[in-house]
Design a protein that fits this description.
Blueprint lengths: L4 H5 L4 H11 L9 H12 L6 H14 L17 H12 L3 H4 L1 H21 L9 H33 L5 H26 L1 H5 L2 E4 L10 E5 H23 L1 H12 L2 H4 L4 H21 L5 E5 L5 H9 L4 E5 L3
Antiparallel strand pairs: 1-2, 3-4
Helix pairs in contact: 2-4, 2-14, 3-4, 5-14, 7-8, 7-9, 8-9, 9-11, 9-12, 11-14, 12-14
């Protein structure tokens, strides 16, 4: 038995991973039914007569709505296919000028963002270490507090120091203002990942013989080193996501205002252009931020714990794999 995802999408390359994540983030998949999912699962279970196009569609349908390891159905609001629908209002709220100048506005949108992030982290966790309700609640409280604290500190710092040297009306000033909600979100995301997935650091996560979940791969044991790497890669991915989604829209809007007369002649175009930028940036941000790191990352056998390294060498392996989560 083999996992056809590697073959169909070419997940060993950045381009292949981008196309894979792009396909499962397709907003059209928000409307799939349980019957569609069951049909696609059956097609993947019996792929003998299916074309590559059929397999791609089936993989996209299943992976957009079902956890790879537990086969649990992901609630609609937290599926990756719903990211664009959920992300646009968050982008408009968090990347607005008020997010860097009004502390209450920033705190509200950061709280809403972290509420969604905590649940998404929970539903896409690595299944080798279950998460308790207490851990989820702790992560939610800490991440919300962190985002509010970091955002408030950056806003006050901007008001006190940066405005003296970098006028907010300049392109650099707009970019620095846009970094306030992005840094607040990235900091809070780091807290969310570590707290909700602390078991992966404390107890380790399963190392596998192939870049696929069971039953396609054999479990070699749990590694704390792999757990630390999985958390670190996820934190980097979340930080890149925040930067790509929140920084470009206000900067591009500023450049359009300064370099063209579009909004002078067509002032009503400002809102649709801003919404269009949000759609483009949010739509591309998730697949781009996830593509640099494989879903099933790998480690050299020499980097893992001795007992697991011994078991891996017995299988003739030079690398082992683990699900890093998202």
């Amino acid at each position: 038995m083999s996992d056809r995802r590697q073959e169909v999408f070419g997940l060993a390359t950045f381009e292949g991973r981008f196309l894979y994540f792009w396909s499962i983030c397709n907003p059209k998949l928000m409307f799939i039914t349980r019957e569609d999912i069951a049909e696609s699962q059956n097609r993947l279970a019996h792929p003998e007569n299916a074309s590559i196009s059929d397999l791609r569609h089936a993989i996209s349908v299943v992976d957009s709505a079902v956890h790879r390891e537990t086969n649990e159905m992901i609630p609609w609001l937290f599926r990756r296919s719903s990211f664009l629908f959920v992300g646009i209002p968050l982008n408009l709220g968090m990347a607005s000028h008020l997010a860097a100048t009004s502390i209450p506005w920033l705190i509200f949108w950061q709280w809403l963002n972290q509420t969604l992030n905590c649940f998404a982290t929970y539903y896409y966790r690595s299944a080798t270490n279950p998460m308790s309700d207490q851990q989820l609640l702790t992560a939610y409280c800490l991440s919300s507090s962190t985002s509010a604290l970091v955002g408030t500190m950056l806003t006050l710092t901007w008001r006190r120091y940066n405005c003296r040297h970098v006028p907010p009306a300049t392109t650099l000033g707009v970019a620095m203002l846009a970094m306030v909600p992005a840094l607040a979100a990235a900091s809070a995301n780091a807290v969310t990942v570590v707290v909700t997935r602390w078991n992966e650091i404390d107890r380790g996560i399963a190392l596998l013989t192939q870049p696929s979940p069971k039953p396609f791969s054999e479990d070699l044991g749990h590694s704390k080193r792999a757990g630390i790497q999985a958390n670190w890669e996820t934190i980097q991915s979340r930080a890149l996501l925040s930067a790509l989604a929140l920084v470009p829209p206000p900067v591009i809007m500023h450049v359009i205002q300064r370099k063209t007369k579009l909004f002078t002649h067509f002032p009503r175009a400002m809102i649709p252009v801003r919404v269009g930028l949000a759609v483009v940036c949010v739509g591309f941000a998730l697949p781009i931020s996830m593509a640099p790191w494989p879903q099933f990352s790998k480690m050299k056998v020499s980097q893992v714990e001795p007992k697991i390294a011994e078991a891996a060498r017995a299988h003739g392996l030079s690398h082992v794999y683990f699900n890093r989560g998202i």
